[in-house]
Amino acid sequence: ARPSPSPPRQPYDDEVPATAKPPRPSRQPLQPPYPYPYRFLLNEPHKCRERAPFLVLLVATEPADTAGRAAIRQTWGNESSVPGVSILRLFLTGVHPVFGAPLRRVLEEESALHRDILQQDFLDTYNNLTLKTLMGMEWVSRHCPGAAYVVKADRDVFLNLAYLVGRLLQPQLPPKRDFMTGYVYRDTGPLRSKAYKWYVPRQVYPNDTYPPYCGGPAYVLSGDLAAKVYAVAQTLPLLNMEDSFVGICLHALGLSVTSSPWGVFNMHRLPYDKCKFSRLVMVHHYQPEEVLSLWPHFQGANVTCPP
Ligand SMILES: *[C@@H]1O[C@H](CO)[C@@H](O)[C@H](O)[C@H]1NC(C)=O
Ligand SMILES: *[C@@H]1O[C@H](CO)[C@@H](O)[C@H](O)[C@H]1NC(C)=O
Ligand SMILES: *[C@@H]1O[C@H](CO)[C@@H](O)[C@H](O)[C@H]1NC(C)=O
Ligand SMILES: *[C@@H]1O[C@H](CO)[C@@H](O)[C@H](O)[C@H]1NC(C)=O
Description:
With 307 residues, this protein is α/β, with parallel strands linked by helices. The chain has helices at residues 66-74, 100-114, 129-143, 161-169, 223-233, 242-252, 274-277, 288-299, and strands spanning 40-42, 55-60, 87-95, 117-123, 149-154, 157-159, 180-185, 213-222, 258-259, 265-266, 282-284. It is globular and about 55 Å long. Bound molecules: 2-acetamido-2-deoxy-beta-D-glucopyranose (4 copies). Its main location: Golgi.
């Protein structure tokens, strides 16, 4: 989720003169209303009715990012890219804070064509990313509880699902339970200065450290855990950092994340190298257009990699 350009932001409550609004001590400006019955504007409730997929891929995108979704469908988001493994891809979006109404028809058309968009009626802003993730968890728990695994990814990644499935998830084994992995952050804490984009006020999260959590660009969890995360999120104060918040949910469930093999999830950009990229799951900071230009080479039989 990190440095994607944030849409024009709405004024926070604390920028509104104190006289203009009654005080609302229980919720801070960065905390969207939650729990709250956000409604699905676009949904795919029957996608998983016939057969539960091995993996549900949830990709966070902004409503106007039609081109990004098109590139992702043809590259790492291709549902048939891992032979013998059923993958179900869904894009997660909210409502554009300025162009919500004109984009509605565009999104409806794209949705009718591809049947892979979930949209709820919250504003699609940086500080609402947690709602986007929770919408995905809600969908899995309501409409696809039999999925073995769930991957949440941001748009700006290079993702190698074949390696994730073959190396970490191993479909020949019984699905893991209460399992989550990715790039694990330990002993990190909230930034308290308002100068940061990722600033978290003490009123929103009082502790100085977060429980261990998986970095937001891409993480994987077992299907059973997606439902538990969604359920426990209804009972916790929401944090605008979606990845830390999922770690807090696990902590509240008495669970924790599992470290991944070293070098498999990369939070820094690495230069493209077919052999190297074929032995990792994720590299952050790859835009969809760039992945689109690399993908034929990555998928091609052109380069033979040493065993
Ligand atoms: C997805 O991958 C399959 C198998 O490699 C390929 O036949 C298909 O054209 C791809 N689909 C898209 C939309 O690129
Ligand atoms: C999050 O979405 C809610 C519902 O649309 C909206 O009221 C709120 O202003 C948004 N919060 C932020 C920080 O953008
Ligand atoms: C916050 O700190 C308290 C007191 O040390 C601890 O009991 C609690 O588990 C912590 N919460 C999280 C989410 O780490
Ligand atoms: C395969 O290799 C040849 C020779 O190096 C190159 O011209 C061609 O573009 C490559 N094909 C792909 C799909 O990268």
